[in-house]
Amino acid sequence: MQFGYFDDARKEYVITTPATPYPWINYLGSKDFFSLISNTGGGYSFYKDAKLRRITRFRYNNVPLDLGGGRYYYINDGKEVWSPGYAPVKKELERYECRHGMGYTKITGEKNHIETEITFFVPLDFNGEVHKVVIKNTGNSNKNITLFSFIEWCLWNALDDQTNFQRNLNTGEVEIEGSVIYHKTEYKERRDHYAFFSVNAPTAGFDSDRESFLGTYNGFQNPDAVLEGKSKNSVADGWSPIASHSLELSLDPGETREYVFILGYVENDLEDKWKLKNVINKTKAYRMMEEFSTAEKADGALKKLADYWEDLLSGYTLVSRDEKLNRMVNIWNQYQCMVTFNLSRSASYFESGIGRGMGFRDSNQDLLGFLHQVPDRARERIIDLASTQLEDGGAYHQYQPLTKRGNDEVGGNFNDDPLWLILAVAAYVKETGDCGILNVSTPYDNDESKAAPLADHLKRAFDHVIHNLGPHGLPLIGRADWNDCLNLNCFSLEPGESFQTTTSKDGRVAESVMIAGMFVYIGKEYAALMKKTGNETEGLRAEKEVHEMEEIIMKYGYDGEWFLRAYDDFGRKVGSRECKEGRIFIESQGLCIMGGLGLSDGKAVNALDAVEERLGTKYGLVLNNPAFTKYYVEYGEISTYPEGYKENAGIFCHNNAWIMCAEAVVGRGDKAFDYYTRIAPAYTEEYSEIHRMEPYVYSQMIAGKDAKRFGEAKNSWLTGTASWNFVAITQYILGIKPDYDGILIDPAIPKEWDTYQVTRKFRGDIYRITVNNPNHVSKGIERMSVDGKEIVSAVIPFAGDGRVHEVIVTMG
Ligand code: BGC
Ligand code: IFM
């Protein structure tokens, strides 16, 4: 069952009922000011940091869940009260529509012949959210209505705001000036910042004190002021400051009115504060209001936003006969990749914005999905990440976005972390040709006195694995590898002792076949990068190390039909036929085969057959099987989850992509694409009532076959799933891979496909690549031509002339 439809021409998902299976959200903002907005206007805004600069309040765990705060509008027409975006009044509308587009959301609601259309967006280079409100009288008699706006301020620090009431209920301060309500709480402190909510028209009244506006015992659904049709003109003094305007309108039949509301944030230079004692400097706010003083100006900014997205998305465009595939590749998957770039894992309807920093492994993997869109910003991100690396090549697991410093709240010792940096840098250099990045002097642990060229960071990341090998010669897993919940060393801790070293007391240590597979896959990338950039000796050394690891994996890491997952701290196999539960895991199958293991002797294909048989379901591939049915202290958190959820046999959409890539590597394009369609949102749209999350973006996890709620997704939006699925479809299946000297063409597609065309922007040139499949094969290229000339290699040589080049590929 669907709750809307895709409007591809406008790059929108159109939701046709407010009763979606879960709030379906969108993100506004592209640089510093960000907002989350649900299909009924719920959500919140923040500046740069969702914890420390929270602008509006939102209650996670609220009941009902999407009435925890938002930007709300109300209409009182003298007979009835409703919200044109449905929430919070929840009175049935005669017509409702929500269009989530690229960086904007437009909600339209019609009732009693009043049609209200509100477009919410954060203009480019603007620290605020703009609401363009258009109200029309669609009836044939005159209408006198009162329109109310509403937002609730958060007292800046989102965690403190939800916990420190004894203080915070005394600090709230506001100022009213004409149609502008300023939120000034804490303006006297060191930080000179404030927020405001304005409208470009005279108001009939305002409210800034929540209790006065709502009434002590009312909720957002039935505010006293709205029910009475009149603002209270309250000025907040402590308690909970809000901002609400009321506008009285008289509309003739067919008449339309347009308003622009701005929810803005201003940060002044510190010296202003000292110059202007005890008053806020409103200069910037005035400028922001002037920038959007008319609806036409808002339209102009919307157009610029559309152009911005058009440009970002134009780096890779596909024309195929599958419209669902086209919309994933051309619009929504790329959009989600940019959102993960901007937000990392900070703020969603599943991430509270007060939890985690930026993950080292997460951010490196996210890069793979957005670097073709914003290569310069990818470069900066790489240097930020590498600057937090430790001298021994290891990494802090996270860093703080505001300070860009590593933090050890979560601890380190996730032994997969450093390798992802190599993968990101190799991908960056292939995309941009910018080898110079390897020479950039980059600190260790943010300490400039310990700076070394980026190439040295990669070497240490590579060597970190070699320096941390276990009894079988496989990499030590440390605290956990990519699978955060596979905590194989934990059992040996004494109560109260935290995990410090990778060596347990009895001298035995857990090892990860997944990291071994990564070492082979990413180690080959490292070797190639070194050789390409003139460091032949290092390239050869890396190849030798990789080769040794390959042998060790095939000796100790393959279990007859598939790759093992690990050895636990007792040296026992994990993910083996010998295990009762957790007999096979997905991660090592994907990464070992992506590294090229088992290709010549059929072992890779056997492993992939085992994946299909044991992990395959109609909704995607589960992470492991059989699920753990009880807690195993020697496996850790993974076995604490109920069967079928999260890392315990849930469908982790992130590593489903690795299997797609592995299937492509062995040449089984049909299987690769089949797995792609099982989890790609455009294909899950038709059973949205089961899946429940947004049908335009990936979720981190879908409940697996052992779960009571099989097929139900959770944790949409902020997940490495976005970038890996983009890599799987664009590079491995459609087979357009950036390489050092050009673009490598290596498709692995369903045999029945006849043709498709990809337009790929690459270092300033444009390559229009038509792939024809007259022989109906999955893999293999018979011939290829560039601008009419046959070429012998599968790599389109980089021209560097800024022109459009026609490439014709014939498979066979
Ligand atoms: C979750 C993981 C997550 C980790 C983050 C665990 O509880 O299951 O999915 O990566 O927390 O720290
Ligand atoms: O690899 C992790 C990721 O870093 C955070 N989310 C869950 C994944 C699997 O545990």
From TrEMBL:
GO molecular function: carbohydrate binding; glycosyltransferase activity
CDD domains, per database record: GH94N_CBP_like (cd11754)
SMART domains reported for this sequence: CBM_X (SM01068)
A biological-process GO annotation: carbohydrate metabolic process
Keywords: Glycosyltransferase, Transferase
Keyword Transmembrane: no
Glycosyl hydrolase 94 supersandwich domain residues: 11-284
InterPro entries per UniProt: 6-hairpin_glycosidase_sf, 6hp_glycosidase-like_sf, Gal_mutarotase_sf_dom, GH65_N, GH94_catalytic, GH94_Enzymes, GH94N_CBP, Glyco_hydrolase_94_b-supersand
Domain (Glycosyl hydrolase 94 catalytic) ranges: 308-735
Domain of life: Bacteria
PANTHER family: CELLOBIONIC ACID PHOSPHORYLASE (PTHR37469:SF2), CELLOBIONIC ACID PHOSPHORYLASE-RELATED (PTHR37469)
Protein name stated in the entry: Cellobiose phosphorylase
Organism: Anaerocolumna xylanovorans DSM 12503
